From TrEMBL:
It comes from Mordavella massiliensis. Pfam families: DUF4130. Residues 102-255 form the DUF4130 domain. It comes from the Bacteria. This is TIGR03915 family putative DNA repair protein.
């Protein structure tokens, strides 16, 4: 009988499920276990399903285990893989951890791309890392009337934990907020303090109304005017532009908005 651990779609939730699966497979020597996400379970024959609650202590224990035995690079790759929306990401991470146990040097696990689970983790990590890298350049803050810098994004992966440290390091004395509209998350930073990650209740319909400052409108007009001024119509190449700046990143970028920021409503 194979045991499937059902957990929430978060790093803490999946690591909590991996903790129980690892204990069953390694400590109790009972083979046959897997990870499934709540709301994405396709039940199979000869499987026992167990729901796992999020537990910070369990998640921290798994993180320490990975860091100690697999190294920082593998730790980062596994973490980034869990930020994606792939329903099999939990199984991929668990399978990679099992595969590392069979190597003389478990810290070289990410070099074994011939293993299907390692290959999947590598691909998921690259996708999440690439998206986070792009948003570091494409994200646009807008100054609100209260002085807070606000930015809205719609990423495929849950990249806020990757973006927030980047901007906290570069804007340590600013009050700013990044809103992940796709996943209902907020990265909030108060000037001079550490950033925090907030999760919106999925059952709660949230409508936020912000009003940008007069200075923001003026700078937006100047920036858009600069972009128009440096454009050479005869050398316009939309296909080449798409390679460097895909359409899905443009919806919240100042230079692609037609309106003059009458307000931000989400």
């Amino acid at each position: 009988m194979r045991t499937i651990y059902i957990c929430t779609d978060s790093v803490t939730g999946i690591y909590s499920g991996i903790y129980d699966a690892w204990k069953q497979a390694v400590v109790n020597r009972q083979e046959g276990c897997g990870i499934a996400l709540k709301g994405q379970v396709e039940q199979e024959l000869f499987c026992e399903y167990t729901e796992v609650e999020e537990d910070l202590k369990k998640a921290a224990a798994v993180d320490r285990l990975i860091h100690k035995n697999m190294g920082e690079k593998a730790r980062r790759d596994l973490y980034y893989a869990l930020l994606t929306e792939d329903p099999e990401k939990g199984n991929a991470v668990l399978g990679t951890m099992f595969a590392a146990r069979s190597l003389p040097d478990s810290r070289k696990i990410m070099e074994h791309l011939s293993h299907p689970m390692v290959e999947k983790v590598f691909e998921l990590s690259r996708a999440a890392g690439g998206e986070a890298h792009n948003y570091k350049g494409f994200l646009r803050f807008r100054e609100l009337e209260n002085g807070v810098l606000y930015a809205a994004i719609r990423p495929k992966a849950q990249v806020l934990p990757c973006l927030a440290p980047h901007f906290a390091d570069r804007l340590p004395k600013e009050n700013w907020m990044i809103h992940d509209q796709h996943h209902g998350q907020f990265a909030v930073h108060e000037a001079g303090k550490k950033w925090v990650l907030l999760q919106q209740d999925p059952e709660e319909k949230l409508e936020i109304r912000f009003q940008v400052s007069d200075a923001e409108r003026q700078y937006a007009r100047l920036w858009k005017g600069f972009c128009r001024a440096i454009t050479i119509e005869e050398r316009r190449n939309p296909a080449c532009q798409l390679q460097h700046l895909p359409l899905r990143y443009r919806s919240e970028m100042t230079e692609f908005l037609a309106e003059e920021f009458p307000g931000v409503v989400r």
